[in-house]
Amino acid sequence: MNQTIITSDISLKAKLLCTLGWRMALCGAETRLIIQSVRQMGVDLGLSEVDLGLSRTGLVVKVHSGTEYCVEFKEISAFGITCLLLLN
């Protein structure tokens, strides 16, 4: 019974982190900022490790807590465009 509670807890944390990164990507946040934010929130949630994969089509988050892990994926249908100003 205790194992189910731990797995459920990890699953909820993975979903939360994936949703955070997904929403940031949709708003056009820089990749660096998405990665930093998701990893920092993972640390704040007490996870031992957070692996992140980000592409134009989706976001994959794998979280570790001891020997347990969970993988979450969210599709990105419309990736936000960040504006870049170049000065000569």
Structural write-up:
This protein has helices at 2-26, 31-44; strands at residues 49-54, 58-65, 68-75. It has one domain (2-75). It has a three-stranded antiparallel β-sheet, covered by helices on one side. It is built from two helices and three strands, in the order ααβββ. β1 and β2 form a beta hairpin. The protein is of the alpha+beta class and 88 residues long.
Biggest sheet record: 3 strands, antiparallel
Shape: globular
Number of strand elements: 3
Catalogue the unreliable spans.
none
Fraction in helix? 40-55%
What is the radius of gyration? 15 Å
Question: How many helices does DSSP assign?
Answer: 2
Strand order of the largest sheet: 1-2-3
